[in-house]
Amino acid sequence: MASVSKLLLLLLCTYLHTLIAHAGDDLRSYKFLPVGSLKSAAVSCSLPKVAPSSGVVTVPLHHRHGPCSTVPSTNAPTLENMLRRDQLRAAYITRKYSGVNGSAGDVEGSDVTVPTTLGTSLDTLEYLITVGMGSPAVTQTMLIDTGSDVSWVQCKPCSQCHSQADSLFDPSSSSTYSAFSCTSAACAQLRQRGCSSSQCQYTVKYGDGSTGSGTYSSDVLALGSSTVENFQFGCSQSESGNLLQDQTAGLMGLGGGAESLATQTAGTFGKAFSYCLPPTPGSSGFLTLGAATSGFVVKTPMLRSTQVPSYYGVLLQAIRVGGRQLNIPASAFSAGSIMDSGTIITRLPRTAYSALSSAFKAGMKQYPPAQPMGIFDTCFDFSGQSSVSIPTVALVFSGGAVVDLASDGIILGSCLAFAANSDDTSLGIIGNVQQRTFEVLYDVGGGAVGFKAGAC
């Protein structure tokens, strides 16, 4: 009986502490999460929430270092290292967009679902899917990236490639493999191309300085139980930079360009796809081609740039903290933003970030400040805490779309999971941390981006 009384007293004290800490605030304006969840520990793998249906193929996404990952890993990269690489990618995207005049650009106006996995075991926070390539199909674990168009896998023979968990794809062992000629239409659409022995050669360059090159080819792609005939991809035979440190078989491009998986399959599955990026290493998400566009209450217009067609743009208009809209001038958001699964952290205009940081700190006064970490300058000391309460954060997009972020999309480690651009004129980026647990719809045909909370 005495032990029960002590337990009740402890619970009462905890409740009173919460009330005192948020005196005058609506508790619904805060989210509560255990400190252990900030460390992303996981011992088992949960399956994606998507229910199977006829004509739909589900392929899961996983954390690289978690139990769901099909790619074994030994040394997990530090958060600081991942953020340094992320900063290079964000800077590269901004440079690519520097020639776009004024804003994010002009609006342009049977399913396949593939599970997705957060790729922390591949030295980044990118997400992974597992597909089959060739005939017979060879299992390949690939990063997904909405900021890239050209898909590629490492192929035999490879003069400079990284070691990978899956078997190296051997074109000579696939009865359906074909290399494109230098004069083919597929070769002509590549931005960076060459010719060797009458075969089309491609080159890809990434924001962190990595490059890859090889023969541009086609073969059968297996997505779960569905197949894509004559799928165009790069057979990578040489790489440089951080690509040599990865353990994946390659990359699957989901951008808006002609070479991407989404564009190549639009005629079969429709001009819409969606994904849900899982929040923890022990959970799975999914990638769906031909996604249903109904059922998304929260939608915002999709902005497209004819100069940089790979990216899917949106217009962020406001930010709410603890249910209160911050006083940020509309002009601060005029450069627009893009949705990017390959960038980790959301980049905000400097004016908007300063307002967000100040408001968030005001709602976190019960926790001592901690030293900045890399690009994170709003950090807290959670020592001795079993759980923490954090102010809610919502992103408000054009068309009245309000996206109330999950707690996983607000705090990373012990810091506010946002970063500031150098000014208000640089392109904003909605990174994958803020997209976690949402089904994010890319309705290319309808010109909209949708959000559905709690999908994975």
List keywords for this structure.
Cathepsin D, subunit A, domain 1; 15% helix; 7 helices; 2 domains; 456 residues; alpha+beta; 32 strands; single chain; six-stranded mixed β-barrel; seven-stranded antiparallel β-sheet
Can you tell me about this structure?
By secondary structure, this protein is α+β, with helices and mostly antiparallel strands. The chain has two domains: 26-36 and 295-452, Cathepsin D, subunit A, domain 1 (Beta Barrel); 57-289, Beta Barrel (Cathepsin D, subunit A, domain 1). Helices cover 15% and strands 32% of the residues. The chain contains seven helices and 32 strands. It has helices at residues 2-21, 79-97, 185-188, 261-264, 266-269, 350-362, 432-435, and strands at 30-34, 59-61, 112-114, 117-119, 126-133, 138-145, 152-154, 178-179, 193-196, 199-205, 211-223, 226-240, 250-253, 272-276, 285-289, 298-301, 312-314, 316-321, 324-325, 337-339, 346-348, 369-370, 379-380, 387-391, 393-397, 401-404, 411-412, 415-416, 418-420, 428-430, 439-443, 448-452. The strands form eight sheets. Strands 2, 3, 14, 15, 16, 31 and 32 form a seven-stranded antiparallel beta sheet that branches. A hairpin with a 4-residue loop joins β31 (439-443) and β32 (448-452). The longest helix has 20 residues, at 2-21. The two termini are 41 Å apart.
Summarize the structure.
The chain has 456 residues and is an alpha+beta fold.
